[in-house]
Design brief:
about 300 residues, mainly alpha
Length: about 300
């Protein structure tokens, strides 16, 4: 029975307008392939990376600042060269993309949960609750997201003991990026909830005595998830950029952690001394990842827009 239901769902998906739009868009196909390659490379970094950048036993400072392997002074062990600590750039990119994706996905999920919850409550309850939540959202929108993330990160560093900064840095970064991005979800969900709550099926659920939280979870939430998924896809790219920016500024992950932003910051210090590969390759990986996710989000927005069908 369950297998029949799953087959039916798959058939409906493959016969849907979204799948047809995906097959007809070469940009979406290439973006998805590139995104999946980057994600799989990060997930399986321990298996694919030639070197573990966290293992001090295999890192030799004498290998520091080696050029790419095709250079006359390069080493075949390090295809893209090494950084100032002797870590292979290819290995650090794979592990760095893993950290960037973990922070990006986690902060997006956190922002989604907060934004969807506040948006549902604001749109369904209305009145003073709606006014308070939306005024807070308006105030936050008046500040750049990176400034809010910097503020939260700075406050957390002042509260948390210094000996715990390294252990909690990623969690603080996820919270800072996530709390700076909940507004877009809340405003979108609120608008959709205002429309859905006046429809007949919601009014019928009220009449028969279903609790408001049950109505929101079973009836309203599934109907507002389309726009939310589009925002989440685009927000993932922004979250990765924000993480890289904070790490580049020195307030993200610790310098010993090979995040893409950290690698770019380290390489920037050696850029004019001729060690261009330390910053160029991590920067290119960041650009490719963000561009692929952004293009995928743009396609998803158009595919789910009924006016463009």
């Amino acid at each position: 029975m369950e297998q029949t239901i799953e087959k039916s769902r798959l058939q409906r998906f493959f016969n849907s307008d979204v799948w047809f739009s995906f097959k007809a868009s070469p940009v979406a196909i290439v973006s998805l392939v590139v995104t999946m390659i980057m994600i799989l490379g990060a997930v399986f970094a321990p298996l694919l990376a030639p070197q573990d950048p966290f293992d001090l036993i295999v890192i030799d400072i004498m290998d520091a600042s080696m050029p790419p392997a095709w250079n006359d002074f390069g080493d075949a062990r390090f295809l893209l060269g090494t950084d100032d600590q002797g870590r292979g750039i290819l290995s650090t990119i794979l592990y760095g993309a893993r950290i960037s994706l973990i922070v990006g996905f986690s902060s997006v999920v956190f922002a989604m949960v907060v934004g969807i919850a506040l948006g549902l409550i604001s749109g369904y309850v209305g009145g003073r609750t709606d006014a308070i939540i939306m005024r807070i959202a308006d105030i936050q929108l008046s500040f750049p997201a990176i400034l809010i993330a910097l503020l939260i990160d700075g406050v957390a560093r002042g509260i948390v003991p210094k000996e715990m900064h390294t252990d909690l840095s990623i969690y603080v970064l996820i919270f800072a990026i996530g709390i700076s991005g909940w507004v877009q979800y809340a405003r979108t969900v609120r608008g959709s909830t205002l429309v859905e709550k006046n429809k007949e099926y919601v009014q019928a659920a009220r009449v028969i005595g279903i609790r408001p939280m049950t109505i929101l979870r079973r009836h309203v939430l599934p109907n507002v998830m389309g726009p939310v998924m589009v925002i989440a896809t685009i927000h993932l790219a922004l979250a990765i950029i924000t993480e890289a920016t904070l790490s580049f500024l020195g307030v993200g992950v610790p310098p010993t952690t090979p995040s893409l932003g950290t690698l770019i910051r380290i390489g920037n210090e050696y850029l004019f001394s001729g060690d261009w590969w330390i910053t160029i390759f991590p920067g290119a990986a960041l650009v490719i990842l963000v561009l692929a996710v952004n293009l995928l989000g743009d396609w998803l927005r158009d595919a789910l827009n009924p006016k463009l069908r």
